[in-house]
Amino acid sequence: MDPQPFPVDRRRYPAFLRHTHWLTAFLVLLAYLTIYARDWLERGTPERMLVGQLHVLAGLLILLLTVPRILMRLQQVPPPILPPMPVAQRLAAGLAHGVLFIFLAVQPMLGLCIQMVSGKGISFPLTSLKIPGLSHPDPELAKAFARLHEAVGELALYVLAAHLLAALWHWRIRQDDALQRML
Ligand code: HEM
Ligand code: HEM
Fold it and tell me: pTM (2 decimals)?
C-alpha cells in the first residue's frame, strides 16, 4: 500500500507521533546522561548500578516506542512544511530522519546483545525482576558488541547535533512551520 498523506486539514504530525517524538527525545537524553554519569561513580556502588539500570531501561523504552512509530510512519507521510522546501533539502531531511529512526531501533538492540551475550541479563531498577543472560556467555563477542554500541552512540551525537541545528534553522532563520508541526 502506498503511503497516504495525513488529512489535509491537519497541519501537524498526529498526536501519537508528536508525543512519542518528545518522549523519545527525553529518553535519549536520559540514556546519554546516565551512561556518562556512570564513569564518575565508583565501581560496585549501588549508585553506579542504578544509573546503569536506568540507562538500560531508557534504551528499552526507546525501542518499545520506536517500533510502532516506524510502522505508523511507513503508512503515512507528515504534512509538508510551508513554505515548501527545495527537493534537495527535503531529501536531506528525509535521509537524516531515516538515519535517526535506524539509530533508535539498532542502538537498543546492540545494548540488549551486550547484556545477553555477557551473561549479565537485564535487571529492573528498584525491583528484583531480572531477565537472565545467556547461560554460556561469550565475553569477547560481548566486548565487540560494546565497542560497536559505543561507536554508534558517539556517531549518533553528530547526527543529533545536526538535527537540533536544523530545527533551530527552521524556527529562527527560515521561519517556516517545521517545528510547529511537531508541537
Ligand atoms: C538509544 C538508546 C541507547 C543509547 C543512546 C546508548 C548509548 C550508549 C553509549 C554512548 C555508551 C558508551 C558510554 C561510554 O563511552 O562510556 C553506552 C554503553 C553501554 N550501553 Fe547503551 N545506549 C542505549 C541503549 C542501551 C540498551 C537498551 C542497553 C541494554 C539493554 C544498553 C547497554 C549498555 C551497556 C552495558 C554499556 C556499557 C558497555 C561497556 O563499555 O561495557 N544501552 N550506551
Ligand atoms: C530539542 C530537541 C529536538 C527538537 C527541537 C526536534 C525537532 C524536530 C522537528 C521540528 C521535527 C520535524 C521535522 C520535519 O518534519 O521536517 C523532528 C522530527 C524528527 N525527530 Fe526531532 N527534535 C529534537 C530531538 C530529537 C531527538 C533526541 C531525536 C532522537 C533520535 C529525534 C528524532 C526525530 C525523528 C526520527 C524525526 C522524524 C519524525 C517523523 O518523520 O515521524 N528528535 N524533530
Answer: 0.94
